[in-house]
């Protein structure tokens, strides 16, 4: 039976159908660059079993840390809890608070607009009153205007007989309503009846009704504004709490990294490295999101000349990871295959076909190219969909086999381990452990630029591109 331990997503997944896309093209026709795609994974741990999965992960960590000094084991467990439980929960709270604040702000703006419209109605009516007085009947005037308009119709003679035979405005109106104007006046009356402030009232009545409506709308607008301010303050508190948790995570990770050499047991080192990598990925997720937000703001400023808005909800305090992506591997004694520091180590990578990252930004292929470059490993620019890397790599001189090695790209076949049935997926090996398991990092978990890590086993079923 294949055993696979799946790490909990560090950022809330926004869509199980997010595509991990890249751009693929044959070298014989460089002018045509179709978009190739590779789907990433869905939310493997749903809301109903998250608690059970968290408990299982904690139990596994404790088993790996058996015999480790209690204070050091506690640090590892605390960082794991922060990264996989408390930070995601705080992130979800921030997103919920932001949605509530946005809804409250929208309600407040709508209430303010209704109030402004009522005030404008009052202003317009007051101008009309200045001209013709409070007792002017707009309904009768409207019917009279329709009668005048009807003089230009085919029944002009009938209308004229009504006009000339009428001794007063009232008689004229009543006579018009008995003829062709009847249907029009009824239609207008039905439409007006649907309005709270209709022209069937005289202007004095309408003015009083508008003033009452303004008073009601003012109360509602004030209440909506207060609710929006409360929601905004609540959202800010949630963001500050999330930032504090992440700052705590950064501090704990740095401290744990300095103590890793005190872990003599191979299993304990693997546990510590896994927890550290997951914490680093959380930092990278925030960095990627912040970079994309900033790029969007710059583009918006250039295109529209408008001010900036608030950063994304999963941004926050990024500590020392804002400018340099950390080396997430490192030496762990004899239990781990360590990351190469320079290109070409172990026969990995090639400059053949590498003309820069030509994959769609934020997708699994784009990330795999960048991550390998950070590790000193070259990658061809046109390997295609994530599930095609293993097939296309040999033509560029890359070694492809079933042996995991740090820095290798794991090319998931279509449908393999939940990868898309057509496009597949690709990830990068971060660590290889003595017990036969290995850790990968990947992008587009639940959405572009979102990173994730997992520990897998049974390497023989996977294709690795070196």
TrEMBL record:
PROSITE patterns: CHAP. Residues 176-204, 221-248, 288-355 are annotated as: Disordered. The keyword Coiled coil applies. Residues 181-200, 224-236, 288-342 have a biased composition (Low complexity). Residues 339-466 form the Peptidase C51 domain. Residues 94-135 form a coiled coil. Keywords: Coiled coil, Signal. It holds the Pfam family CHAP. Residues 1-31 form the signal peptide. Residues 237-248 have a biased composition (Basic and acidic residues). InterPro entries: CHAP_dom, Papain-like_cys_pep_sf. This is CHAP domain-containing protein.
